[in-house]
Each structure stands twice: as structure tokens, then as C-alpha cells.
């Protein structure tokens, strides 16, 4: 493979630059519905928002209270953010006085049993979605499942693939070349994933109600105000052992050294029994508790900060889609909700992600081994818990390197890509310059800004977030919705409810038979 500098040079002509610019992106943003006092909403998914089972833009994740807003795919960043904003603006008008919780970590939690599991209706598909979530509750507890995040879906243009393929040795078919190149991107992303919580981690503090008994927790929390727990140098507690982790999965060893390796690993993982989960039981006294007793009930339970994806056809499982036609796009899953944005992410972050992911694609990406995998895991853990610590050292290729010097060299590469993407507006270089301030000054990171603000104002994290929730509610409620846009959302909601009703009216097999057929090898 050509070196990074060679590739950048080969992509500097006008046609190649246009091919680079023609990236496709989509965003999925999660947000809890809360009442005005900040407590978790207990009512059903608002009917005005349609069916969570079938609506393309507005659904729920784990909990009935956990909304998820999904954009279509866009090439233009302004159109992408506008679409996400319109969905938020329509939704807040139909929350019956409730607000959206604008950070990743939840608050004001009472009994975990009061966290309502999402309901998708009486169809076999809807029952399976709910049972999967019920299984997550038995396995990991409900609290972990109401942590919110932002997912960023990304693909490069067909024109860029044609150009990169022409510059390769063409020993693979174009389809295989694309899949293997995406896996190269994924490997480099995992080597550098710590960069995202460093810059964009926005959960360095949390409400004490999230930790039911702080004395039994081994995190050395400090306290701000009356009920805010924080770690002095943390960036993203969402990505720590307090958040989305699964120790049962530690031994799966799924390889990212190519599509075939990945599919073999995933096939093995979804059929691997778990002694711990078997103790829960699958069907107890005639009632299901989980889909099965394997380490993964289904592929979606595999917690990874990035996923290789393809749009499924029919009832395909994710790995079946990949096996059919290769990787179509990747899903970045290491992003906290940005509390400084009413929609959880802002344009300079998107532009940074573009640069970051293109860099991961264009840099050489050798296969990883067990030693490097351990290094990748240790670096991420260090940054999540103490990423803003002065002089923090990470490990690269078995050698210690300071976080700041590694970041500086990364930003130099990103600047070369930014020059290719920019026209007279210099949007990418401006975005890069904004986040470059955080290389030597951790206070410029999102987590640094949050801790600095909480300390200066001596305000509880939960009080601050409630203020933001109210501010964004009013801001989004006032956001202009044309009659045509409003009508489109109303029609989409109505159509989704009709579609769910039609699915439920279909004659179908029993749920037992449905599950047996789904898991049939």
C-alpha cells in the first residue's frame, strides 16, 4: 500500500478532491424524556411521534423513555444538521410538557425497576425487540441501558473507491477491496479511538443517584456541590466500566483483520454459551427472560466503539448483510452527547470526524495482534478516566508516548486532508484549529469545559443539565417548522402507526416458533 503522503499527493487533483468531499453521513442521537423536575418519564412513547417499531426517523432504544432520532444519509453537513434539528423541533412540540435530557449520563434515578423497557407492540418482531431489552436488564441492569450517546454513520463516495482502487495493486475485486479498506479504517480507528473521548468526551461528572452506593464503588470520586460525583481528569465516564461495558465479552477476541476474520469471530460469538447468563434462565415458569443464554443474545449486543455495517435486506442479520455484499459504511459509537448543542453534536465535530476517519482510511493499517489489542484497550481506558491529566503517557508500538505529542502528529496529518477538502471557506481547517486548542490545553476539551464551568459556578451537574434542558426545549420549540415540514412529520407518524397495525394483523406463527426460526443455523 502507498504511504499516506503518497496517497495525499495522488488525491490532490480536482476530480480526486471532489471524490474526497463527497462523503455520506448519517446521525443517530439518543435522549431521555424527563419531567420538569428531571425525573425519567414513565408514560408511553408519545403517539404523535408515531410507532417506535416502524418510524424511520423517531424511535426508542432500550427504554420507552429513551428517544432515538435518526437522520437519512446526507452529503451536505448543513442539510444533515438541519434535518436532525427539524426532527428535534417537531418532537419537543409533542412531549406533553416533558423535556429532553441533554447529556449522556442519566440523573434523578430512583428504583431501577421503575425504568420502563421499550414496548414495540404485539407482533413477533416487536415482542423480540422487547425481549432482547428485557434480557439486557437481567444481564447488566437497567441503569446502564439508559445512558445516551450519538452514533455517526460514515461512508466515502464510489468515486473515491474507484480512485483508490486504481491506485492499489488491484489484487482483489473492487467489492473485496472496499471491505478490506473499511476494515483497515476500523483498525486505525481503534488505535486512535482514545482521541474521541479526549476531545469530545462529555461525561466527566455524574449525578450521585446513578451510583446507588458510592462506598462500594472503586472509583475515586470527588464531589462538587451536593450531589455531583466526578473524576478530576476524566473525559467520558459513559465509556468507562460505569457505562457500556460487558466483561462477558472480554474473551470473544473478535478480529478486525479482515471481513472473513470478523464474520468467523461473530459467528462463533453469537453461538458461545455463557454460564453466568444460563443462571438467569431463558424461559422460566412460562415467561421469557432473555432470547437465549449465549454471551450475545443477538449481534447488536456486541459492544464496540465502531461497527462495520451494510443496510439489511428483509430479515437479514447484520453479519448476513456483510457476507452478502461486503461493508457499505461504518458506525462510530464512541461519542458522548455534546451538552453544548441542542441536538447533541455540532458541525465542527462532524468535520473533525470526517478528517479523522479519512486519515484512518488513508494511513497504512497493518493487522493487529493480541499485544496491540491490549495496548489499544489500555490507552482507551487511560484517556476515559484521566485523559486531561498533565503529562499523561500512552503506549504506541510498545513504546511510551505522551498524549499531547501523539495528538500533535495526528493533527499534522489531519491538516493535510483538510487542505484537500477545503475551498475558499476553509471550513475544515477552521474546525481543526478549534479542536487543536485542546492538544496542549485540556480545558478546551468538552469534559474540561464542563468541569471548569461546574467548579466556577459551584453548581450541581444535575441542576446545570436541567437548565440546559429547559433552554434547549424553548430554543427548539421556537425553531421554525414550515407547514409542509410539519405535515410531513404528521404523515410519517400516521403511516408508521398504520404499518405497525398491519404487521400485527398479519397471521403469524407462535412466538416460540418465530424465535426458533430466527436462530436456526
Q: Could you please describe the fold and organization of this structure?
A:
With 521 residues, the protein is of the alpha+beta class. It is 45% helix and 11% strand. The chain has helices at residues 4-10, 14-21, 77-92, 124-140, 158-167, 174-192, 195-200, 259-270, 275-278, 318-325, 347-362, 370-386, 403-421, 427-440, 446-457, 461-477, 483-505, 511-518; strands at residues 24-34, 58-60, 66-70, 99-100, 150-155, 205-207, 222-224, 228-230, 283-284, 287-288, 306-309, 329-335, 393-396, 399-402. Helix 11 crosses helix 13 (403-421), helix 11 crosses helix 14 and helix 13 packs antiparallel against helix 14 (427-440).
Strand content: 5-15%
Described by strand count, sense and barrel closure, the largest sheet is: 7 strands, antiparallel
Low-confidence stretches: none
Q: What is the CA–CA distance across the termini? A: 38 Å
* Average of the residue pLDDT scores: 94
Short description:
This protein is 45% helix and 11% strand. With 521 residues, it is an alpha+beta fold.
Search tags:
single chain; 521 residues; alpha+beta; 7-stranded antiparallel sheet; globular
List the helices and strands and how they pair.
Blueprint: H1 4-10, H2 14-21, E1 24-34, E2 58-60, E3 66-70, H3 77-92, E4 99-100, H4 124-140, E5 150-155, H5 158-167, H6 174-192, H7 195-200, E6 205-207, E7 222-224, E8 228-230, H8 259-270, H9 275-278, E9 283-284, E10 287-288, E11 306-309, H10 318-325, E12 329-335, H11 347-362, H12 370-386, E13 393-396, E14 399-402, H13 403-421, H14 427-440, H15 446-457, H16 461-477, H17 483-505, H18 511-518
